[in-house]
Design a protein that fits this description.
5 strands; alpha/beta; single chain; five-stranded parallel sheet
Length: 211
C-alpha cells in the first residue's frame, strides 16, 4: 500500500516535500548509503530526491569568516551545496559513525552552514526553519546507543535552526554490505520517513515547555 494512500489517514503528507540526501562516507556504496537508499525506496512515488556524494566533490576546508564582511558562496561546489540545501524541505545526513560522530566530509559540509548564516542577505536560518533534518548512520557496534553523540549533534543543529527533527536511522555494518544482514534496521527503514518530525528543542527549552 503506498504511503500516501487515502486509506491511511495517519500517514504523513508528502505533497510539496523534497528530500536531499547528503552522503558523507569516504567509501562508495557504504553501509550508511545502503541503509539510506533502503529507506528512500519507501518514500511515495514522485517525491523528489536529490543525492549528493561529498566524497566526489572538491570542497575546501571551511574558513570561519563570521567577523568579516563576506558575500554569497563563490566556490562552485559550495554554491551548488547551498542551492540544493535551501531547495530541500527535508535534509538527510548520511554518515558512517567515525569516532562516535560524523565523518570528516560530513562535518566539513555542516561547518559551511555556519558561514551561510552570516553573509548579508542569506537568511539561512529563516530559510531552514520549519524544514526537517534526518540522519542515517551505520556503525560497527551492535549497541546503537553508542551513536548518541551523532544523534545529539544533529538534533541540536536542528534546534538551533528551528528545524524539525526526524530522528536517526541506525544500522550495524562494519564490513562492506554488512548492514543488509541487520534485519531490524531494514525493517525500521521501511517506515523511517513516516515517523514523527517534532520541532527540535534544546533540553532547557523542553524543560521550560513542560513547566
Amino acid at each position: 500500500m503506498p504511503l500516501d494512500t487515502p486509506d491511511s489517514p495517519d500517514s504523513p503528507d508528502f505533497s510539496n516535500r523534497s528530500f536531499l540526501f547528503v552522503l558523507g562516507s569516504s567509501r562508495a556504496d557504504g553501509n550508511s548509503e545502503i541503509l539510506a537508499r533502503e529507506a528512500a525506496a519507501h518514500l511515495p512515488e514522485g517525491v523528489p530526491q536529490r543525492w549528493v556524494d561529498l566524497n566526489e566533490l572538491s570542497l575546501p576546508d571551511f574558513q570561519d569568516g563570521r567577523h568579516e564582511i563576506t558575500g554569497p558562496p563563490v566556490h562552485e561546489t559550495e554554491k551548488m551545496l547551498w542551492d540544493v540545501t535551501v531547495a530541500a524541505t527535508d535534509v538527510v545526513i548520511v554518515s558512517p559513525l567515525y569516532w562516535y560522530t560524523f565523518s570528516a566530509q560530513t562535518k566539513r559540509y555542516l561547518d559551511y552552514w555556519s558561514g551561510w548564516l552570516n553573509f548579508p542577505g542569506s537568511d539561512f536560518k529563516a530559510r531552514m526553519a520549519g524544514r526537517t533534518l534526518w540522519g542515517v548512520t551505520a556503525l560497527s557496534h551492535d549497541e546503537h546507543v553508542v551513536a548518541e553523540g551523532l544523534v545529539t549533534s544533529l538534533h541540536h543543529s536542528a534546534a538551533y535552526l528551528r528545524m524539525r527533527f526526524g530522528s536517526v536511522l541506525t544500522g550495524t555494518g562494519s564490513r562492506p554490505g554488512r548492514v543488509r544482514a541487520d534485519e531490524a534496521a531494514l525493517i525500521r527503514a521501511k517506515t523511517f520517513f513516516q515517523g514523527e518530525t517534532p520541532l527540535a528543542l534544546f533540553p532547557y527549552e523542553e524543560g521550560a515547555a513542560v513547566a
